[in-house]
Design goal:
There is one protein chain. By secondary structure, the protein is mainly alpha-helical. It is 48% helix and 5% strand. It has a two-stranded antiparallel sheet. Strands 3-4 form a two-stranded antiparallel sheet. The chain has a two-stranded antiparallel ribbon with strand order 5-6. Strand 7 and strand 8 form a beta hairpin. Helix 3 packs parallel to helix 5 and helix 6 runs parallel beside helix 9. The longest helix has 17 residues. The chain is globular and about 55 Å long. The two termini are 19 Å apart.
Length: 432
């Protein structure tokens, strides 16, 4: 499907799909001791998952989003019960990272306190960050050394949660571990590997984003300068210029037996690269970064997604690796630059067509083309499941109605748009 062939889904229908997605998601919650609620990554799983990536911490933001969007206090009540289970889980974690561990739970708990005034959530967030600080070995927290599972995410999460001292502590090791390249610097994403990953989730650009945000917020020019050096390395690797922007997953290719060399989503492609360039645009006022973000979008919109052109090309609906993550960027551009709504409608129509809807609500199944059966069990969380998809659908609805483009909780690696960015659609925009 292309923008010129767009099937426009009525805004009320998109909102109804989001409601059905929320209904399935809340029904999948498990009761916990003390009146809490928690989720597993898949309904068939036995173990509760508290993480930001695939569990309860990542579901909390969409509950806050739904509460603000609909004005329905039942979503706030569910969020408070979820925060209760997260607070109880803080001491049992064996991971301190943003997406998989305590830093992510601290961020979600702080968001509940800020939105709903829950002092127990605030105290639990402080306790989680204290645990994180105590487990620092002077350089890192574990094997991973990037945004999702390592220092960069911990620094970014600590900054957003209000602990600037911990944020700087997490980011300073990058000053002494940076590896020089012909165009700038990069880092190993984990110990014992030869490949260097390049994008936001596990690679150099994720570290760049955290260095830039923490450096700017704390007045550390050395961190911001290092961020720019990391970004320069990635820009030099572009293979799609001058109009587009596309960088390979890694050099040399990491796990070539299972990982595609080129991707287009948030995690390892230009949809995520553009978020870093948006941040550098805002922090430096250098128009070169805005131009790079535009080049990323040029490549994304001409890649063929969300069509599944071949097995393994585009088989994910979710926020991390799939269509919802591209929709997030489309809505950012609609808010900030008055982009036409056409490509966002392509993405929303695809999510609508791929939804599984019945009396239980709506959910989405991703695809693993190397497995039989290839349709995977629907997931609940932010990365691959309902929480991440519903969050972006609700924002699309607000933009289509010329309402506030901001999220109830701004994800730390997606630069927020300003309140003034709400703009009426241009002539010719496909808004129903």
């Amino acid at each position: 499907m292309t923008a010129t062939e767009t099937t426009v889904v009525a805004v009320d229908e998109v909102e109804g799909l989001a409601v059905d997605g929320l209904r399935w998601l809340t029904a999948a919650a498990r009761d916990t001791t003390g009146g809490g609620l928690a989720w597993t990554a898949r309904p068939s799983d036995d173990s509760l998952d508290p993480s930001l990536y695939s569990g309860t911490a990542g579901i909390l933001p969409v509950l806050l989003e739904a509460w603000r969007h609909f004005g329905d206090d039942s979503y706030a009540d569910t969020a408070l019960r979820a925060a209760r289970s997260l607070a109880a889980a803080v001491d049992g974690f064996d991971d301190d990272s943003l997406y998989f561990g305590r830093t992510g739970t601290a961020l979600a708990l702080r968001a509940v306190h800020d939105a709903l005034g829950d002092p127990a959530a605030d105290a639990a967030a402080d306790r989680a960050l204290a645990h994180v600080r105590s487990r620092f070995d002077g350089t890192r927290w574990g094997d991973l050394f990037e945004l999702m599972g390592g220092n960069a995410g911990i620094g970014l999460g600590a900054l957003v949660a209000g602990d600037t001292e911990l944020a700087v502590l997490a980011m300073e090791p990058y000053l002494r571990t940076a590896e020089q390249t012909p165009a700038g610097v990069h880092w190993a994403h984990r110990t014992g590997v030869d490949s260097r990953l390049h994008h936001i989730s596990h690679g150099t650009l994720g570290i760049v984003l955290a260095l830039a945000r923490v450096g700017h917020a704390t007045g550390r020019a050395d961190l911001l300068e290092l961020a720019l050096a990391g970004a320069a390395d990635i820009v030099a690797r572009d293979e799609a210029g001058p109009r587009g922007f596309l960088v390979r997953h890694s050099t040399p290719q990491y796990r070539p037996d299972v990982i595609e060399p080129v991707s287009y989503g948030w995690c390892h492609g230009p949809a995520g690269d553009a978020q870093v360039f948006r941040l550098l645009r805002d922090l430096t006022a250098d128009p070169a970064w805005a131009a790079l973000a535009d080049r990323c979008w040029h490549t994304v919109t001409r890649s063929g997604l969300p069509e599944r052109l071949r097995p393994g090309f585009w088989d994910n609906n979710g926020r991390c690796c799939g269509t919802a993550g591209v929709l997030a960027l489309a809505c950012d551009r609609m808010s900030e630059q008055r982009d036409p709504h056409d490509f966002a409608h392509v993405l929303v129509a695809d999510l609508t067509a791929r939804a599984i809807r019945d009396t239980d609500g709506a959910r989405w199944s991703n695809v693993e083309h190397r497995a039989t059966p290839s349709d995977l069990e629907p997931r609940t969380g932010w990365a691959m499941g309902n929480a991440g998809i519903v969050r972006e659908l609700l924002r699309f609805v607000r933009l289509s109605r010329e309402e506030d483009p901001r999220y109830a909780f701004a994800w730390p690696d997606q630069p927020p748009v300003s309140a003034q960015a709400t703009l009426p659609p241009q002539d010719g925009d496909a808004v129903s």
